[in-house]
């Protein structure tokens, strides 16, 4: 079984036989899969009328469990954005009725951001669509191979975590 990366590596081997192209075989495939995943994510989210950034914030709140609320600082750490960006995002999500700001009972000056029922419905629907799309992307691999691939990717990522 061949794919486009095999053709790419074959051409580079012909032109640059002095290089070890094993990394190209791995990362060119990862890069192509990342593009496919990005398209699948965008479609899953668009079908539920939310943007990628909205999903990131709503998903962080949904994963929090309990009352589905986090401080803005925790949301910043969860989504890796700046304070100003988070303020803008919370404002926009509040405007859509997906989150609400509440006073923090443990800090008079603080606020908590809480997922609303509409926000929960939006993030749950988008996440279900995303999982289905990702399952389709993995459909060619048996469960054993998927587990092995997940383990190998975990090992590859560990030094960067």
Describe what you observe in this structure:
The protein is mainly alpha-helical and 161 residues long. It has two domains: 1-46; 51-145, Orthogonal Bundle (Arc Repressor Mutant, subunit A). It has seven helices and three strands; from the N terminus they run αααβααββαα. It has a three-stranded antiparallel β-sheet with strand order 1-3-2.
Write the layout of secondary structure elements.
Elements: H1 4-15, H2 22-46, H3 52-63, E1 69-70, H4 72-79, H5 83-95, E2 99-104, E3 107-115, H6 117-137, H7 143-157
Antiparallel strand pairs: 1-3, 2-3
Helix pairs in contact: 2-6, 3-6
In percent, how helical is the residue content? 55-70%
Q: Helix count?
A: 7
Oligomeric state, counting identical vs distinct chains: single chain
> Would you tell me which CATH topology of the largest domain applies?
Arc Repressor Mutant, subunit A
For this structure, what is the CATH homologous superfamily of the largest domain? Winged helix-like DNA-binding domain superfamily/Winged helix DNA-binding domain
The number of distinct structural domains comes to: 2
Largest sheet: 3 strands, antiparallel
Which regions are unreliable across 5 or more consecutive residues at pLDDT < 50?
Answer: none
Q: What's the count of strands?
A: 3
Q: Report the C-alpha radius of gyration, rounded.
A: 21 Å
CATH class of the largest domain: Mainly Alpha
How far apart are the first and last residues' alpha carbons, in Å?
33 Å
Q: What is the correct CATH architecture of the largest domain?
A: Orthogonal Bundle
Class inferred from helices and paired strands: mainly alpha
Strand content: 5-15%
Query: What is the molecular shape?
Result: elongated
What is the string of helix and strand elements? HHHEHHEEHH
